[in-house]
Amino acid sequence: MEVSYYPGCTLKTNGKNFEVTTLKLLEKLDVDVKELEEWYCCGVTFSQSEENLIQKVAPIRTLVKAKEAGRKKLLVLCAMCYNTLKRAVKFIKDNPDKRDVIHDFMDRESTKYFGDEVEIIDLLSLLKLIGREKIREVVGDKRLNLKVAGYYGCMLLRPRDIAIDSETNPTLLEEMLENFGLSPVYFPFRVECCGSYQILNNSDFVRKQTRLIVSSAIENGADFIVTLCPLCFYNLDEVQKEIAEEDSAFKTIPVMYISQLLSIAAGISPEINDFNLHSIDPRPVLREKGLL
Amino acid sequence: MKRIGVFVCHCGINIAGTVDIKRVVEAVKNFPGVVYVEDYKYMCSDPGQNLIREKIKSEKLDGVVIAACSPTLHEKTFRNTVSQAGINPYNCEIANIREQCSWVHTNMEEATEKAIRIVKSIVAKTLLDESLVPIKSPVVKRALVVGGGIAGIQAALNIANSGYEVVLVEKEPSIGGRMAQFSETFPTLDCAQCILTPKMVDVASNENIKLLTYSEVVDVSGSVGNFKVKIKKKAKSVDYEKCTGCGICVEKCPVKVPNEFDRGMSERKAIYTQFPQAVPNKPVIDRENCTYFQKGKCRLCERVCPFGAIDFEQEDEVIEEEVGAIVLATGYELYDVSNMGEYGGGELEDVIDGLTFERLLSSSGPTSGEVRRPSDGKVPKTVVFVKCVGSRDPEHHFPYCSKVCCMYTTKHAMLYKHRVPDGKAYIFYMDVRTAGKGYEEFYQRAQEEDGVIYLRGKVSKIYKSDGKLIVDGFDTLTGRKVQVEADMVVLAMAIRPSSGAEKLFNLLKVSTDANGFLTEAHPKLRPVESLTAGIFLVGCAQGPKDIPDSVSQANAAASMISVMFSQDYLIHEPIITGVNEDLCSGCGICVAVCPYDARKINREKGTVEVNEILCEACGACAAACPSGAAQQKNLTDRQIISMIKAILEE
Amino acid sequence: MEPKVSIKLPAKDAARVERFAEITGVNVFACYQCGNCSASCPATEFMDVPPHQVMRYLQLEMFDEIVKANTCWICAACITCTAKCPRGIDIAKAMEGLRQIFLEEQEFARYNIFDIKKKVLEKLPQIALVGNFRKNIL
Predict the structure, then answer these.
(1) How deeply is C29 buried, as exposed, middle or buried, from its count of CB atoms within 10 A (0-12, 13-18, 19+)?
(2) What is the mean pLDDT of each run of 10 residues along chain A (292 residues)?
(3) Which of A101, A291, B78, B352 has the most CB atoms lying inside 10 A of its own CB?
(4) ipTM at complex level
(5) Site from C127, C129, C136, C137 to mutate, A interface, most A CB atoms within 10 angstroms
């Protein structure tokens, strides 16, 4: 299988553990991943306004690049990028007149993007496509003694027309954890919002959410929380540390990108991670479980 | 040529407001065949009808066109009118200048022109109309009732008590239906079983009722007055002639399986009677769970039965019954809790549906009426009730209101408070709908006297934390989020048509609405009839409703059937599609398109034959026939062509 | 003296009503005030006016009440409200429309980049910054 790859800004900086471990993992699963030679910031939050077309230009530009790259699938790891790109494509498909306006604006592009030329795919759906058999072939029959709370967040599940799974009762993340020999923990806050960019304006809101999500994962017996979004990662990891510093009774739990744990399960050395990018150091738990 | 009279109705301003009646009258005078034209304010009124009768006589008319409202409304009225004046009613036609003209147009000039053309085409049709005589067919004076819940029981009893035979088919081992599962009923708090069981016993002892439990309708043919129904009697494995219902077999049976009647909260045996007051009060063997049927040994029940009633060799049997009318009382089931991902998706043991709570409240239920939660049998001290779960949610589930939940949830909370006086009951609601005698008072009582707290808003999420069920909701009246730490949650799940019923409905070719409920012939004026003649709808199969409404519907259907059975013949419209045998090549295309099984090929003659009773004159065959052999009476190709010509003529 | 009435109807805010319809296309009259948006919104506690009441004000064309409230600025565009709405109303889109209208009317930007502390920027992912700008700057 071959896919083009759109990293987005954060995966090149704070979120690079997500990129590094995913690329290694996919290499092991015989997926040929090629990063787009040129790409643009997606804009992060999709503008839901029927107007405001300018905010939809960048995602479409990126898809023009993906079309030029010639591969049928475009892998997008960051959940926010996935959401924005996918909705921008849906928007131009639903609004041909507005699509034409956007096309007219992009006068330096060599080709136009209409909507179905490249399929945008997230990591979980890609792993599903690779299939359980191939994964078991690489991972083997061993099961790591790890209880993992899969945190979906919002952007992969909402709105419904771009969702990767059921919005109220998704199972894809847990299914993938299971395929890699990890034990998924269902916890009631797995589809709850982390507070997102409101970390800048209303950190109390994010703190409240982090408390809820983290406590619920711990209550349900998880060793780790895994996420697929660098902003969720920050809000759950860094903010968790801040809460813990103020409230000594608050229990913490390490947060990781899903690929960090899956790559370990696939026998890839944890050394490729930069653990300095974690505010709650996952190494003690990894050591305790004999994985480091 | 026929002498045709045209009568133009103003319908007050309904027609005259948009159509220039004077101009219509003037124009019509010149149509070929028209010898008399008159207009009148309300043609359907007594003076209007008298006018028509008088003019038929004085002008020696032999064809009449009424330019008025839709034929669905008054075709019958006017055909009666003309026949009283001695004209064959099928020489009277309606030109619809209201629904198809005045009501849908605003420009008087254009509407008038259209009305003239409509009348002209109907005159052209009437010129070619034949005199017809209604078709008579005999009635089999027996009824089939499908479903032995309260609606089916009531319908069966009424028909039987009118002196006609009834075949009552129930798929479960006992009649009683959902009502038998209920605890007490709103708003009087009568014990459901106490008021239901006497009726069940009446069914069993009524000589006019042939009760077939553990049975299902598998095939239906024929039509109103003469249906042929095949019924599968599932093997009970017990000879009911010998069995006395002593219950020793049940006591000794070693197999225990979850009891469906108690919504899985108790156990029953593989040989079982559904509940203590079951009718018939004799057991059946559930072969899927019986050790003997699955593994080939045991036969303990056979050994302990003092009467030799156990019969392992019994087989399913298909019997055929002839009936003149069918009552569908197939009832409802609840939408499954597993559909509600945000409420635990059925994984939280103490989040239950309303019917399950009925069993917890019932004195014959698994807890003998004590409110104890399923997970650990503890008495819940805080119970949350959520209404409109799956109902009124067109985006995710069903758009309709399930109608009974407002009242039964109020009853649930009230009964809970009676059993657990120190408990707290909270009801999340969007609206409280208490349209029914004594219902509003009942709702007020729950608040004032029993201290049930109503919270106006939806619940967004239910999950477990620290041993409690956390219910996250909202109270729009205070504008605040509400979180309740509950011990148990009762969801008022949407009412759905019984899952097995769809197959039967397809078999009978009765239509259902977008939600799977049976469609009535007219929502207001023919509420218990289906669009297929001779098939009646009662109870929740037609839509969510409470017991009094179900009983009223059953009474209504039974009375309509009694009226039908009081006549020796059914009258069938003579407007059917026949066969011109000289033209028919027996190709069979019409047979394939007929939705009523009214046509078949006569191999000997090499032509098609029509069963006139079954033909509903839909015209599908006439349109499909390549040779013009299939012609609908009084709507022949010749008539249609002359109508089109009349409309297009300048 | 004119009698005091809290809500005077019909309201006179035609320009905003029209602009709202242009930007969002949301039919606010589908709302039957079940409150599920407010129940499921993770930020209701931080809002002066909960989302379902914003929908009510929209039905009554009372934009002045919505301007006063912080609701659309607290919203994190997580779309939970839209996902939960039994009537299929895109409430998240309505919030976006309100943000755009108010930004157009009052201030081009509600946010000053220099207000962000340097220390925060070290670890904060870019997507937080860009996302926040997009919702608060026109």
Answers:
(1) exposed
(2) 96 96 98 96 91 91 96 97 96 95 90 95 98 95 93 97 94 97 96 95 96 97 97 97 96 98 96 96 96 90
(3) B78
(4) 0.92
(5) C127
Q: Could you tell me if C127 lies within 8 Å of chain A, comparing CB atoms?
A: yes
CA B622/CA B644 separation, integer angstroms: 17
The DSSP annotation for C39-62 comes to: HH-TTGGG-SS-HHHHHHHHHTT-
**Contact at 8 Å (CB) between B409 and B430?**
no
Please indicate, yes or no, whether residues C27 and C63 belong to a single structural domain of this protein.
Answer: yes
- CA-to-CA separations, B498 to A250, B334, B443, B504, in angstroms, rounded: 50, 8, 29, 11
CA atoms of B503 and B506, how far apart (whole Å): 5
pLDDT for C32 beyond 90: yes
Query: Do C134 and C81 fall within a single domain?
Result: no
Beta-sheet pairing, B468-475 with B480-486: antiparallel
Residue C2's pLDDT is 67
Last residue of some domain: B528, B544, B565? B565
The confidence score (pLDDT) of residue B596 equals 77
Out of A169, A216, A219, the one facing B341 most closely (by C-beta) is A169
- What is the spatial distance between Cα B440 and Cα B456, in angstroms, rounded to a whole number? 17
Query: For position B113, which CATH number holds?
Result: 3.40.50
- The per-residue pLDDT for C1 is 65
If asked whether residues C100 and C61 sit together in one domain, one would say yes
Count: domains in chain B: 5
Counting the structural domains of chain C, the total is 2
Contact between chains at C88 and B395 (C-beta distance less than 8 A): yes
Q: Which residues of B, range 334-393, sit inside 8 Å of A by Cβ?
A: 340-342, 345
- Give this prediction's pTM: 0.87
Give the pLDDT of residue B190.
95
Specify whether C38 is located in the same domain as C64. Answer: yes
**What is the Cα gyration radius of chain C?**
16
Q: Looking at B496, B522, B553, which one is the last position of a domain?
A: B496
Per-residue pLDDT reduced to its tens digit, B378-406 = 999 999 999 999 999 999 999 999 999 99
Residue B597 tokens, joined? 């099984």
Q: Which domain holds residue B616?
A: 576-632
- Residue B637 forms part of a structural domain: no
pLDDT, chain C, mean:
91
CA dist B437 and B456 (Å) reads 24
Q: Are residues C48 and C87 in the same domain?
A: yes
Find the CB nearest B481 among C32, C44, C84: C44
Asked if residue C69 and residue C27 are part of one domain, the reply reads yes
- Identify whether residues C20 and C81 lie together within a single domain: yes
In percent, the amount of chain C with pLDDT more than 70 equals 98
At B545-584, the pLDDT tens digits run: 999 999 999 999 999 999 999 999 988 889 999 999 999 9
What tokens were used for A291? Answer: 């994985």
Q: Do B130 and B172 fall within a single domain? A: no
Domain residue limits at C138: 110-138
Q: Does C137 touch chain A (CB under 8 A)?
A: no
pLDDT tens digits for range B135-177:
998 999 999 999 999 999 999 999 999 999 999 999 999 999 9
Q: Which chains would you list as touching C if contact means 3+ CB atom pairs under 8 Å?
A: A, B
B9-66 pLDDT tens trace: 999 999 999 999 999 999 999 999 999 999 999 999 999 999 999 999 999 999 999 9
Chain B residue numbers touching C34 (CB-CB < 8 A): 388, 430, 457-458, 476
Tell me the CATH number at B592.
3.30.70.20
> Do both B366 and B488 map to the same domain?
yes
Dihedral sign for Cα B208, B212, B217, B218, please. Answer: negative
Alpha-carbon distance of A199 to B294, in angstroms, equals 62
